[in-house]
Amino acid sequence: MTNVGLVAVSHSAPLAAAARDLALDMGRDAVIVAAGGADGGFGTSAELISAAIEEADGGAGVVVLVDLGSAVMSTEMALEFIDPDMAERTTVVPAPLVEGLVVAAVAAGAGASREDVAREAMGALAAKEADIPYADAAGGAMGAGGVDDDGPDTREWISRTYVVDDPAGLHARPAGALVAAVAPFDAEVRVSHVGNGRGPVVARSMTSLISLGVLEGDEVLVQATGPEAEAALDAVGELAQRGWLAKGEAKPESPIPAHKRQTGSGMEIAVGPALVWNAQPRPELGTEPKNQADAYAEAREAVRTYLSSLGDDPILTLQVGLLDDPAYAGRITTAIDAGKPAQIAVHNATQDTVAEYLDLPTAYLRERSEDVKALGDLLIQALHGLPLGGLAAAIADFGRDPVVVLDSLTPALASEIDPGSVIGILAATGSATGHGALIASAKGIPVITGKEIARDITEGQEVALEPRSGMVYVDPTRAQLHELLRASKEQAKLAKAAREHAHEPAMFDGRQIYVRANVALASDAELGAKNGADGSGLVRTEVLFADWDHRPTVDEQAEVFTQIAEALGTEQPITLRTWDVGADKPVSFFDSEPEDNPFLGVRGIRLMQRIPDALVDQFRAAIRVAQHANIKVMIPMVTTVAEVVWAREMFNVAVEAEGRPDELPQFGMMLETPAALLNVAAFDEKVDFFSVGTNDLIQYMAATDRGNSAVAPVADQVIPLVVDLIADTARKLESPLGICGDLASSEEHVPQLVRAGVASLSVRPGLVPQIKAAIRAIK
Ligand code: PEP
Ligand code: MG
C-alpha cells in the first residue's frame, strides 16, 4: 500500500511550493503536491487543486492543507470535479499550512493512515502554543481568538446584525477591512455567526473572523461595548454598505472567487445560478407618423449617449458610427421623409441592411449583421421611450454572481457586464466570433453562444458551462461536473500542444503540407502570421476592397497587397484571388445588372470578361508586388478552358504593361464548379496550381444556396461525395492541388484529403495551429 498523499493549497504558488519543499526536507518519503496560485498570480484554482489531488493519490487517500479564504471553497469545488471514490478518500483539514504540512509529511512518510496524518496536522500548533504563551492586548489569554469568558460579563453590549454579501464571504480581504474599521474606536467589538452559532470572536482578529466560516449571504451579529461602541458599530454598518470593501478600496478587478473563475482567461469552467435576462418586450410598431423625424433624431441621440457611456471599445465605436452611416441612416431618413413612422423606417432599414450583411462571403462578415440588428433594436427601444440596457442593474439586484442567460449577447450588453460580477454568460443565439461574445471573452468572462438550451433555463437554476468544449449542463450532477473538467483539460492540452508547434511545418509521410490562412481583412493576415500560417492560400480581394467607393488603382491595390505580404512574411506564398465579384460579393465600383439567379449569373471571371481592364489592373498590381514578395494569382468561378485561356491573355497584357519584369506570379485557378472539376485534366497544362473552393463547389453539387440555412442539412449530406471527388482529383493531377474553401478548416476531413495528396490547406486564420496538429496526427 502506498503512503497517504498530501496537497498544499495556497493563494501563492511560491508559498505552496516552499511549504512543500520544507515539509519534504522533514518527511522525505512523503508525496506532496503544491497547488498554489491561479493564472500566474495570486488566487486558488479548483482545476489545479483537483489535478494535484489526482497526482498525490496513490490509493491510500490524500490530506489537503489550505491557507485561507477561497482556498477552502476552491478545494471543495475540486472535490466535486474528481472521481467520487477519490473524493471519498480525501480529507481537507483546517490545519496551519506550514506547520501542519511539516508534521503531516513526517507522519505520511512513515506510513500513517489518512486519519492519523490529518490528526497530526491538526495538532501542529500545540508545540508552538506551549512554547510561546500569548496574551492579547487586553491582557487576557485569548487562545484561538475566542472572547475571554472569565467571569460574568456585566458590561452593556449593543448589537446589530449585517449580511455579508462578499461573493467569498468573510474571507481575508473583508475580514481585514472589518478589523481596520473598528480599530480606531475605544470599544470592544465581537462578532458571531448567526446561522452556525460560531463565535463570538474578537473583531480585531482577522483569523478569528475568518474562522467563523461566514459565507456569502450569511448574517453576522456584531456586538460592541465601551465609550465608542455606537461609533464602532456605525463603522461596521458603513463597511457592510460598501460591500465589505475597506475605505477607499476599489472593487478588485476580479472579485469572483477563484473557485468560480479560475484563470480569468474566459476559458474556465463556470458554475452558478442563472439570471435570465429578457430583452425589453417589443411594443407593437406604431403607425401614426407624428413628428417622426424629431422622434428619430431624439432616439438616435439616446442610443448614441447610451453606447458612448459603455466605454470606448472599437466595436461600440463602430456601432455609434453606424448610427451616422449614410447607407443605414440614409435608408431610415428616406423612409421617414416618405411618410413612414420612425419605428417602421428603422425596422425596415435594419432588415435590409442585415440582409445585405448576410450575403457577405465569409462567416465572420456575415456575423456583423448581429451588430446591425442590435443597433436597430436599441433605436426601436429608444423610440418607444424605453430605458436602454439595464443588465448591469439586474445583475446588481440579483444579489449573487450569476451566469447570465440571454437570447442574444449584443455588444452593448456585453459591455455593460462587469467581469467582477458575473460567473459566465450563456446565449441562445450567435457565434463565438459575434462581437458581443468577443467583448465578453476579452474581459475574461467564460461565454458560450448559440445554445438553444438557454431558452429553457429558468431563473435561479444552476448552470455549468465549459467554453473550450462548448458543454453546458443545467443543474449539473457531480458526474457531469467531473465530465466538464475532463473535457476542459483535454481541450486545453490539445490547444496548448497545437499552439506550441504552430510555427513548425506540418509534415505527413515525409512531405510538408502547407497550412495557409484565408485573408479577407488586413487583420486576418496578422492573425494568420501569429498562428504560424505558411502564407495565404486565398486573399479575397473583392472583400478587402468591399467598402471602397471607387475601384482601387494599380498603386492602391499594390499597397494593400504589400501590407498583407509583409504581415505574413514576403517569402511566404500569398495567393491573390482576382476579383470574385457578383452574387454574394457585390462591390459598389463594378456595375452589375440585377439577375434572377446571381449565383448562377455573371460573377467572378465571367464579370471580368465584360470589364477586362479591371482584371489587367489587378494582375499589374500583383506583378508589381511580386518583385518583392512571393505572390501567386488565382482565377475564381472558372467553368471552361476558354475562360482560363482568356485570363492568361489578360495576364500577358499586364506583364507587357509592367515592362516584363523578371519575377512573375504563379498562375492558378479555382476549382469550384462541378464542370471544371470533372474536366480538370484539360486545365492541368494551362495553370501552375489548383485550389478547390469547397463553399461554392458544395452549393453547385448539392444545388443548395450556401447562404440558406434551410437547405444546409442537404448540403451536409453531399460533403462526403465532394471529399471523395477532391481526393480522386488530387490523385490524378500534375499541378499541385490545394483547398481554400471552408472544408479545409474541418479537422474531420483533413486525413482523407491529405492522404489523397492535397498539397496545401488554406484555413480560417485562427485555426492554423489546430489544422497543423490534425495533419501531424494522421496515422
Ligand atoms: C469557395 O467557394 O470555397 C471559396 C473559397 O471562395 P468564396 O467562399 O470566397 O466564394
Ligand atoms: Mg467561391
From TrEMBL:
The keyword Repressor does not apply. GO terms for cellular component: membrane. Its cofactor is Mg(2+). Its EC number is 2.7.1.121. Transmembrane segments: none annotated. One of its GO terms (biological process) is phosphoenolpyruvate-dependent sugar phosphotransferase system. Residues 157-248 form the HPr domain. Residues 3-132 form the PTS EIIA type-4 domain. Keywords: Kinase, Magnesium, Metal-binding, Pyruvate, Transferase. It catalyses: dihydroxyacetone + phosphoenolpyruvate = dihydroxyacetone phosphate + pyruvate. GO terms for molecular function: metal ion binding; phosphoenolpyruvate-glycerone phosphotransferase activity. The keyword Kinase applies. NCBIfam families: dha_pts, PTS_HPr_family. Belongs to the PEP-utilizing enzyme family. PANTHER family: PHOSPHOENOLPYRUVATE-PROTEIN PHOSPHOTRANSFERASE (PTHR46244). Component of the dihydroxyacetone kinase complex, which is responsible for the phosphoenolpyruvate (PEP)-dependent phosphorylation of dihydroxyacetone. DhaM serves as the phosphoryl donor. Is phosphorylated by phosphoenolpyruvate in an EI- and HPr-dependent reaction, and a phosphorelay system on histidine residues finally leads to phosphoryl transfer to DhaL and dihydroxyacetone. Homodimer. The dihydroxyacetone kinase complex is composed of a homodimer of DhaM, a homodimer of DhaK and the subunit DhaL. This is phosphoenolpyruvate--glycerone phosphotransferase. It comes from Trueperella bernardiae.
